[in-house]
Amino acid sequence: MPQSLDDQYSLGDSIVDMGGGDGIDDPVQDNRPRILIMGLRRSGKSSIQKVVFHSMNANDTLFLESTNIIIKEDFQSFIDFHVWDFPGQLDFFDPTFDTNAIFGEYGALIFVIDAQDDYMEALTRLHDTVTRAYRVNPNLFFEVFIHKVDALSDEYKIETQRDIHQRTTDELADFGLEKVSLGFHLTSIYDRSIFEAFSKVIQKLIPQLPTLENLLNILCANSGIEKAFLFDINSKIYIATDSSPVDIQSYEICSEMIDVIFDISEIYSKRTSTRNDSGMSQSIKSAIQPTTDETASDASSLVRLHNDMVLYLKGVNRFLALVCLIPSDNLEKHGLIDYNFQCFKQAITDVFDLKRLSIERRLEEDIDDDDISI
Amino acid sequence: MSKKVLLMGKSGSGKTSMRSIIFHNYVAKDTRRLGATIDVENSRVRFLGNLVLNLWDCGGQDMFMENYFASQREHIFRNVEVLIYVFDVESRDIEKDMHYYQDCLEAILVNSKNAKVFCLIHKMDLVQEEMRHRVFEARLNELNTRSEPVKITAFATSIWDESLYKAWSSIVHSLIPNVKLLESHLQNFATICEADEAVLFERTTFLVISHCTKMDNTDIHRFSKISNYIKLFKMSCSRAQAQFKSMEIRQADFAAFIDVLTANTYVMVIMSDLSIEPSATKMNISVARKHFEKLEVSHIAR
């Protein structure tokens, strides 16, 4: 049965503290994580980027033109990050390209492989990319998206993944690079797998992840919640969930719920909504709509299902929403759960404020240092 | 009460696909698996309980078409309430499509002259977005002249967006006998609830049966969009082994309630006055339930 969260969170100061401590080494400079999307031409890089970050319909990606310059995009969200979309035909190891500038930042490199095609060439390119990038920045996360698997049978999918995994690790081992952190994901833009894969990638880049998980665990345990996801509203990537195992179906239904709620809200809300349906860049959008904060954070929606489960959505802030699966019996103490949500929301705000404060403080210190040296 | 609906058009134009999406809960991409329709496929769809749509999905290969116009002429074209003719917008041989279409109209005029005719310009998703309107206008003009003296209603459709729901909602709307009565009761209901808008959906297809708007909304396609969204969401619910029951949305400036009304309908109520408690609206819906059920029953008795 639900119980009040008051005590847990008031003890929670030490928990909250964990997040701010291990920030990114260099906050003064551009401290945004950078996500590089690479791969051979026509492997689906731009489509992925459009579908995930611009909520483009998967079928409309047919009309996308091939990319021929590096597209850099700021994505403003709970953490700000850059997405760089590289043209496939570009040889970025050309001496004129500054590999240090490209790979030097904190972040992740996503390599997209078209699974419907012969992937030998892609693998050579992948090995090449990984070895070079690793030399520049050993802290980079490497993620391989085995893409366009929607057309493959389940058996063949597993086989392909195994084959690619095997070949890549063998090759890298030959170069003495066993320690490279490599992740493999089967993805397709026609289902949720691409969002799931991106969620995993982003989660690696969030230093506050253990704190967020902890907060979610406490919330779930005390409110009779079966499963909770903290979603980024714009991209439907989940940035954290409680520590119970993720069942892909519950993730799917939660993200579909966000879709349907925001689609309907877009029709009836008189204010401009937070969602972007055009191809307009995220940063421009958020720049011209600074007042949407309230809209999203007041959101509270629920869907009742016939198996006595309730999907409950609560807006946390402009970018984040919490979606929970609650057995309908536990929802009887509606007020208490709402109260717990408020505590949770406050805790999340504190976590992210802490990071901002620490950055500001360091900035101030730097300025002070400068003064002294003068 | 059974109503005969003819679904015709060239082979591969998408007749079976759209029927499967609207009435048999297919997702758009699953229609790739559908094979060609051989001869005529009859399906009876219960719609709104007492109204049964008798769908005749007529395979469009030349051999079958010739057959319909010759030996099966009377069998096919008799007692038709609605003819839906589907055109593939990307078709190479427009002249031939038109030829069959006119043969079809001729047969309809003789055998069931009161039939309503709907033309769907289908697969619009294959046309670039900027071009769609112009292409549709051009086709519509041609169809209008070719259809003389029959008055037709035409829609641009695609299985990949809500346009399909818009077309079918209006087709179905023309088939419901007591739609005026339903409309006036819905009007009352909306006034009592102080709702901005109340919309009645059929339960399994989520096609719009009737709506009542008190507050203007700029989005004219909103009902078919909502049909589409909810239907997709219902399907993903059932994929997760759960059935969709009801939904409540609260945003900063409006609240929406989507709930079961009768055994055959769902209702959506939009409220912008947030000082009205959600439970009051829910109470109104549950009280209205009995009333609308009675309305349906009295209709069967007639």
From TrEMBL, chain A:
Transmembrane segments: none
Cellular localization per UniProt: Endomembrane system
Chief place of localization: membrane
GO biological process: cellular response to starvation; negative regulation of autophagy; positive regulation of TORC1 signaling
Classification via Pfam families: Gtr1_RagA
Keyword RNA-binding: no
CC per GO annotation: endomembrane system; fungal-type vacuole membrane; Gtr1-Gtr2 GTPase complex; nucleus
InterPro entries linked to this entry: Gtr1_RagA (IPR006762), P-loop_NTPase (IPR027417), RagC/D (IPR039400)
Highest taxon in the source lineage: Eukaryota
Catalysed reaction equations from the record: GTP + H2O = GDP + phosphate + H(+)
UniProt GO MF annotations: GTP binding; GTPase activity
Keywords: GTP-binding, Hydrolase, Membrane, Nucleotide-binding
Record bears the keyword GTP-binding: yes
Family annotation (PANTHER family): GH16429P, RAS-RELATED GTP BINDING RAG/GTR YEAST
Role: GTPase involved in activation of the TORC1 signaling pathway, which promotes growth and represses autophagy in nutrient-rich conditions.
Stated family: Belongs to the GTR/RAG GTP-binding protein family.
Assembly notes: Component of the GSE complex.
Protein name: GTP-binding protein
Source organism (scientific name): Acaulospora morrowiae
UniProtKB/TrEMBL annotation, chain B:
Subcellular location: Cytoplasm; Endomembrane system; Lysosome
GO CC annotation terms, alphabetical: endomembrane system; fungal-type vacuole membrane; Gtr1-Gtr2 GTPase complex; nucleus
GO MF annotation: an example: GTP binding
Gene3D superfamilies in the cross-refs: 3.30.450.190, P-loop containing nucleotide triphosphate hydrolases (3.40.50.300)
One GO BP: negative regulation of autophagy
Keywords for this protein: Cytoplasm, GTP-binding, Hydrolase, Isopeptide bond, Lysosome, Membrane, Nucleotide-binding, Ubl conjugation
Record carries keyword Magnesium: no
InterPro entries: Gtr1_RagA (IPR006762), P-loop_NTPase (IPR027417), RagA/B (IPR039397)
Record keyword GTP-binding present: yes
Domain of life: Eukaryota
Main localization category: cytoplasm
Oligomer and partners: Component of the GSE complex.
Function of the molecule: GTPase involved in activation of the TORC1 signaling pathway, which promotes growth and represses autophagy in nutrient-rich conditions.
Family classification: Belongs to the GTR/RAG GTP-binding protein family.
Protein known as: GTP-binding protein
